[in-house]
Amino acid sequence: MEKVSTIAGAACPIDQANVNTDQIIPARFLKWTRAMGFGKALFHDLRFAADEREKPDFPLNRPAWRDARIVVAARNFGCGSSREAAVYALYDYGIRCVIAPSFGDIFSGNATQNGLLTAIVTDAEAAEIMATLAARPQTPLTIDLEAQTILCGNRSYAFTIDPVRRMRLLNGWDDIALTERFRDRIAAFKAADRAARPWAVPPATAAP
Amino acid sequence: MSEPQTIIDKLWAAHEILCRDDGESLLWVDRHYVHEGSFHAFARLAERGVTVAEPGLTFAVADHYVPTRAPRRDIANPEIARMVRQVEENTARHGVKLFGLDDPRQGIVHVVGPEQGLTLPGLMIVCGDSHTSTHGALGAYAFGIGASEVAHVLMTQTIWQKKPKRMRVTVSGRTAPGITAKDIALAIIAKIGTDGATGCAVEYAGEAVRALTIEGRLTLCNMSIEAGARLGVVAPDATTFAYLAGRPFAPHGAELDRAVAAWSRLASDSDATFEREVALEGGAIAPTVTWGTSPEDALPIDASVPDPAREPDPDRARYLREALDYMGIAPGAKLTDIAVDRVFIGSCTNARIEDLRAAAAVLGGRASKVPGLVSAGSTPVKQQAEQEGLDRIFRDAGLAWGESGCSMCVGINGDIVAPGERCASTTNRNFRGRQGPGARTHLMSPAMVAAAAVIGHLADVRPLLAGRSV
User: Fold this and answer.
1) In angstroms, rounded to a whole number, what is the distance separating the alpha carbons of residues B268 and B271?
2) Could you read off the pLDDT of B17-58 as tens digits, one per residue?
3) Contacts of residue B433 in chain A, CB cutoff 8 Å?
């Protein structure tokens, strides 16, 4: 995974609470492979009408935010289904950071796994950043993960992120490689556990 | 003296292999359920040229994409056929047991696991599906994960997690007749919101929860994710042990006795503390339906939908306007005046045998005013329903009797609600477009869906149950 340090660029406000993963990518696109380009399906039914024409009012369709690197939203962004394609869609579109007052647990875990930063600010700060962007759409944002700051015009905001997630992003850790280092510990746990909880291992064939 | 522990602490401790200095723990996984959607993860294994670490602890189903109304052999849609073929090929390659379309045990993963006795108290269970919280009903620590984590579990049988906050939701007293686990779940979500339990593992407790059957507890725990919870769990008790006895993959004989002794120690210590406590009065819960585009938009059936003009908070007023507009409902309308176009009884939330019986108890001898689909939670549930004659009741009422799968809950098998159509549904999400682009979903219990079918609009099921045995 690529290391994350500083993210700078256009920021698109999506002033809605509870933006769920069905909105981020509708289920009918989940058959796609990553190579097919999930970015095309990002916010599909919010971005496009039934005839596939762009909805001009959706923020990501406005000229200033079309090439956004950052999304700013209200509370509970990414709630709902565990589909990791929601993160793929954001990332493949070019989004590298979502700023919101809170996130769905599974979504923010998936985001960390894929190098997408989820930065937590207060409700009031999210609203203020979105208001700034609404008034001056071209305002670029700069996010510094090391310092945990968001620069928006001449205003600076501190953001929070789970320290474990922060370290993972800063280091670009590969989970599998990390876990492999503990192979002996896992084997020892398994051996002791099989003795302690024999009932936890299912039979190879079901009882009739 | 050791610290008093909650069931969440006990389950966590039993699976913790190690804890890093930064507070993240590596946990052992007892059961990993996979489905057609797990193809991203299998692709990662292929990239690395590795095999599944513990195929004996990994179980697969075909549920998300399988046709529930169209023929299941020679699937007509090539993309859907490919999704089903992929899970067959991936599981065959890695020696993973598949409950596929040819298997009489096939069904929705969160129905199959408990039904087959694969889901047990005291287990750590993960699956690439947010409704994995369902399995907590039996006293398991069960949660949904994303594709990267699915790949990690396939490769290592472990998962990195940070311990969640502990939260207890207590539903005291007895619920009134006609009130189901779905009503309790919707009442909880309405009270705490869709992010009310974010970052938390929830234990459900109290007399009303204890009184639920295992199938009711499965419905309750299933909806935990709709309140943002990582997982929901009910401490195992005599009801749990009776449910498990004789299940195909559950322990038998002396091993079961040993297991029950261990499971009996899982309950939270009486003096254990939770970071958050929420209390509801069971007797105050009415038949509950959703009106909007989030599961937290739930109200008792005798209520009216909100009126944005009366909402002082401008952000909230805007949300109400947009939700009502999408749903095609006038501000302040009475819920019982909302006419439905279609009904759906199915999904991992509410398609077990007790759910089908509850719907049939209302529909027996009556006709549905609208078309609809009934899709049993598993093929064994379907067979059981047919033995009991429930399928006749549904067919005679005018509803389609389908095969088992995720079906119209998520619509990716092609069974969708048409744009603008309104569906009374036993499912778990009323998100915009969830059941198909432009679909309007109202969540409720199976009995309430049956009532909506009979009356033609949202309705209180209780008068329809008068004089009937349920």
Assistant:
1) 8
2) 999 998 999 999 999 999 999 999 999 999 999 999 999 999
3) 22-23, 26, 45
Taking contacts as CB-CB distances below 8 angstroms, the residues of chain B near A16 are 319
Q: What is the CATH number of domain A6-173?
A: 3.20.19.10
Single-letter amino acid, residue B35: H
Q: How many residue pairs from chains A and B have C-beta atoms closer than 8 A?
A: 176
- Is residue B53 within 8 A of residue A179, CB to CB? The reply is no
Name the pLDDT band for A174 (thresholds 50, 70, 90): confident
Range of the domain at B120: 7-276
For residues B237 and B310, state if they share a domain. no
CATH number at residue B338: 3.30.499.10
Mutation site for A-interface testing, chosen from B19, B27, B225 by largest number of A Cβ within 10 Å? B225
Query: pLDDT tier at B1 (50, 70, 90 boundaries)?
Result: low
Question: Which residues have a Cβ under 8 Å from the Cβ of A69 and sit 6 or more positions away?
Answer: A7, A8, A9, A10, A11, A94, A95, A96, A97
Within 8 A of A17 by CB-CB distance, chain B residues are 315, 319
Q: Per the CB < 8 Å rule, is A31 touching B128? A: no
B368-378 pLDDT, tens digit per residue, is 999 999 999 99
Number of domains chain B contains: 2
Compute the distance between CA of residue B36 and CA of residue B100 in angstroms, rounded to an integer. Answer: 10
* Chain B interface disruption, residue of A14, A24, A25, A31, most B CBs within 10 A: A31
- Mean of the pLDDT values across residues B266-274? 98
> What's the Cα-to-Cα distance from A150 to each of A11, A72, A97, A157, B309, rounded to whole Å?
11, 11, 11, 5, 36
CA distance A9 to chain B (A): 27
